[in-house]
Amino acid sequence: MKKTVKCLVWDLDNTLWDGTLLESPEVKLKQGIPELLRKLDEKGIINSIASKNNYQDAMEVLKKNNISEYFLYPEIHWNAKSVSIANIQKNLNIGIDTIAFIDDQDFERHEVSSVHTDVYCLDAKEYAELHTYERFNPGVITEDARRRRHLYQEDLRRSQDEKEFQGPKEEFLAGLNIELLITPATEADLTRMEELTIRTNQLSATGKTYKSEELHAYMNCDSHRLMVWELKDKYGSYGKIGLVLLKLLPNRIHIEMILCSCRVMSRGIGTVMLQYLAALACKKNKKLTANYRDTGKNRIMYLAYKFASFKESGIYEDDCMVMEYTMNEQFVPAYIKIIDHVK
Predict the structure, then answer these.
(1) pTM for this entry
(2) What domains are there in the chain, each with its CATH number?
């Protein structure tokens, strides 16, 4: 099954606009482009650029047409477009198979597809129909999805400030006033929770996806607990970024599913979430175990388990390896304040 597109990378000349900028500075946007960008943005699909052009001249056209704000991490230079797409993928921290690339030239599309075989390459002639294509229509559209571009832009400001900060990283993080809000899942969270299970790859312990109906059933099940995480700092909210499904057993608490948005990977939130659950199990005088299934993309989740003092138990349940917590103490970084609303 082909992945839903998370980022559409645009060529500029004769793709986003008619004409070649180097030949004429009076290029005009193709008909319907502002409306198409808005539609994609409202679906949570990020727009970016891979164009062989002069950066300042191209950005001037985008600003003149009031659409520059839609494009994150634009790659406007003379390098190969496969390189540009690799840079965009790295900056957005998404799977290469969730990127689409649109260009009017066969050569450029072939160059990209020869290097990145999983990138969805499209002819510029198709631009007006993109919003109708299945891969450009996520099954669920949440408030977090509608704000996705703004969330990335906030992340960019964080990153820029961190690069400019003179001092230890821990000191910078301490100044962010990071809060991790943990709450029981509610009806209002269902759509976002389903979206998280679909979109999260690297920090998903099992790779399993859940429909909102399944999640709703767990919310009303005495043998399970479903919780969501929201992360905030002085720049704003990252949105609902984490989800965990616990199974309550007589002698242990078992993590059936845990996942965390890749956007907060650098904050170590995955490990913090596990340490919180370890403290919860310790408080109830129970063992803590967890599911892990190698999906080929979630190695970093396995490392999060190891950093949080989990080890392989040698037991398999439901096609998953069972990890077991081995420590009696829990450590949460001092720069993160946990606000716990779970009883």
Answers:
(1) 0.71
(2) 7-136 (3.40.50.1000), 143-340 (3.40.630.30)
